Structures are given as structure tokens and as C-alpha cells.
Amino acid sequence: MLVGLLAYLGVALVVICTPGPDTALTVRNALAGGRRSGVWTAAGVAAGQLVWTVAASVGIAGLIRASEPVFVTMKLLGAGYLIWLGIQSLRAAHRAEGGHGRPGPAPRVGTTRSLRQGLINDLANPKMAAFFMSLLPQFAPADGRALPAMLGLGLLFSLLTFAWLALYSVAVDRLRRLFTRSRVRRALDAVAGTILIAFGARLAWSS
């Protein structure tokens, strides 16, 4: 039991600490709205993972993965959402120059919007359904305790994700004085936008 839990933690930490669309979105919102926006984005991502945990535990995720039209539609919607967020960041980078060479005001991202973006960003990625559906059963017992075990493992994964992304938000917030300088801000917005678009394109063309 303990060995299995430690193995699960190892796999989970590797996956969580590997930068992806959720990390890029959290950093983007932390830059735009500060620590609160980043933390609420992390909360939205974690909430989305909890939804996928329940879906995987009761078999809904399997139905989504088995239905090719539903899976493809969700994948394209998720890709489109990532690309749209990326374009927003690129536009923010362009606006950051402001008038007469002075830095323009950074667009604010409210907490409600940050939570919603984090939630949608996670739920709109059907790859998460396949991920939880393949990961959780490997570490859950095969008897009647499988359902509560999968729910518990998914909850642990979501909490670890929230903690990691919240840490990102705090780090970005502490460096905002540097990041809000015109040239640095434009570069970071451009990089964040490019990364989000790249993740969206990869999702759209993935099998």
C-alpha cells in the first residue's frame, strides 16, 4: 500500500511539474493580475481535475474517449480555446508598448475570470480524460474499494497541482516589478502567447 502510494506520488509529481498549458495559463494570469489571479487560476485547474477524477472513476471519461465524435469535438474546442488565449497574450504584448514608446497599462484579470479560465482550460482538454482513466486504475485496488481509492488519488493529484501552480503564482508575483518593465513584459506576454498557441496546435493535431 505504502509502496504503491509512493510510486503514485512519484508519477504525479513528474507530470505536475512538467510545464504544460495549465502552467502557461497560470503564469500568464499571474503576470496580468498578480498572485490572486494566479492562485485562482490554479484553483480552476484543480477543480477541473476533480471533475475528470469523478468522470474517470464512474466511467464517464471512458465513454468520452470511446466516442470519437465527442472526443474530437472536445479536442478541437480545447485547442481553439488555448489558441484564443494565446492570441490575447500576443495582443497584450503588442499593446504593452503604449503610446510614444511608453509602457501601456497591463490588462487586469479578475479572480472570477481566472477561476473560469483555469476550469475551462482543464475541462476542454479531453486528453485529461484519457490521462486520469489510464493513471488512477493502475494504483487503485481491484476490489470494492476501487472507487473511493480512485477518488482519493484524484483528489491528491488535484491538491498537488494546486499547490504547485500556486507556488508558480507567488514566484511570478514577487518578480512582477521586473516583469512589468515594458520590454520584459512584452517579451513575456509574447512568449506566453506563443506557448499557448503551440499547445493548442499540438492538441488539435494530436491523435
Automatic annotation (TrEMBL):
It is a multi-pass membrane protein. It is found in: Cell membrane. InterPro entries: LeuE-type. The keyword Transmembrane helix applies. The chain crosses the membrane at residues 41-63, 70-87, 146-167, 187-205. Keywords: Cell membrane, Membrane, Transmembrane, Transmembrane helix. The keyword Transmembrane helix applies. It comes from the Bacteria. This is LysE family translocator. It comes from Plantactinospora siamensis.
